[in-house]
Amino acid sequence: MCERVLNDAAFYRLLLRVDQDMAAAEQRQRCRVCGAALHVGHFARKPRGVPAGVGEDYRMRFSFCCANRECRKRRMPPSVRFLGPKVYAFAVVVLISAMRCGPSPRRMRELQELIGVSRDTVARWRRWWCELLPESRFWRGAAGALMPPMDAQELPASLLERFAGACPERLLSLLRWLSPISTGSPAVHAA
Length: 191
Ligand SMILES: [Zn+2]
Hints:
The chain contains 8 helices and 5 strands, in the order αβββββααααααα. By secondary structure, it is mostly helical. It has one domain.
């Protein structure tokens, strides 16, 4: 069952390692505006829905800042842990949204209580998946290549089904695939 991942600290630590790799790759590049080196400008967040035992370093959102004082352009590497400014962990936003149509209403309530997410929040996520994400530039480019075309009304369950393997592997593949949008513009994440 996919929901077991929600309580799997090892899975979340794996996500942290993926983010560390993507951050290291980002820092090896230089500032895209002026070409100067990038300095570390990480900051702490308070992600909700993360299981106990994951560790404090999970909270750090990796970020870089151009070393050139005249520029100071911030560069955010993509993330599989944080989805824009959303306070719940990216994996939680995916799995709870995907389960919306799956388990019984009672099971869904239990899950929401386990994670501590309100019905209104799940409804906002639903709008994000079905209305805002399909309108994003990332989606129009990346999803346009998927065959058969993706049914936006079934997101993110329909997207999870496109990846191979057991649930943790599919979830990780989905998070990696969507990670470019994790840094996204406020418009994409407004709701
Ligand atoms: Zn710069």
